[in-house]
Amino acid sequence: MNVMLSLDWKSLLSFKTLAIAYIIYVLSVFILKILFYSKRSLGLSFCLAVLLLVSFGLKSAGFETMEKIFDFLGTWGVLIVVTILNRDIRDALELMWAPSNKKSSISMGTDKTKNNIIEACIKLSSAKTGALITIEKHNTLEQYASRAIDLDAIVTIELLLQIFITDTPLHDGAVIVRGDRIVCAGAYYNLSDNEHFSKTSTGSRHRAGLGISEVTDSLTIICSEETGNISIAFQGTLIHMNNREHLQGYLDLFMR
């Protein structure tokens, strides 16, 4: 009690203390995001924690040989967990970065742009041509665009159809639309690990669309190459479009 009363409150509020507290806070948030991103992360992290606790217990009890074994396992356990979870760590970094990458102002596309996107998707769907079209909103997608093919072109039906012609270099990637312009083509996203997502009935194109919707506020339209069906990915949810009016309604709400 006397020790507590003798604490120097000025030192507790010093720059060094605040800096350490902030680092602990950031690391705590980061670790929690990794832990709860998937059951895989939670399970592996739990196993590592058990190893470290057992090692500490053996050390306290004086079992030096067993302690060395568990210390060895704990050290390698950290490396193994980091290796296995590198995808989860990367996704957690994106989740932390998303709130801070919002643009100060947004400019959604005009009705003409919206109708061109819808018409292109209907044509791509009819021809069973796979396509991935992401419409940017508040969160900038510049980090994905910077690794893609720069276009900076007006959104037209003809250009969208040309981009997604089968067996062309840009066919498998995504188009990013910002306002009335196609920023780039051939963009690639991290695939979603959503356990409720059917990986047997849909392919990597759908998982990519779902993945970008989990870390940004964008909306992605997916045209299936196998079935010709149109879906949209928004806020971590995949929604199948029944008809043109359904797609029109969602874009009207998103692009207003």
Can you characterise this structure?
The structure is a single chain. By secondary structure, this protein is α+β, with helices and mostly antiparallel strands. The protein has two domains: 9-101, no CATH class; 111-254, DNA integrity scanning protein, DisA, N-terminal domain (YojJ-like (1, 3-Layer(aba) Sandwich). The protein is 54% helix and 14% strand. The chain has eleven helices and seven strands. The chain has helices spanning 2-5, 9-12, 15-37, 39-61, 64-84, 86-97, 111-126, 142-145, 157-163, 204-215, 244-254; strands at residues 131-135, 149-154, 174-178, 181-187, 219-223, 230-234, 237-240. It has a seven-stranded mixed sheet with strand order 2-4-3-1-5-6-7, sandwiched between helices. A hairpin with a 2-residue loop joins β6 (230-234) and β7. Residues 1-7 have low confidence and may be disordered.
In short:
The chain is 54% helix and 14% strand. It is α+β, with helices and mostly antiparallel strands and 256 residues long.
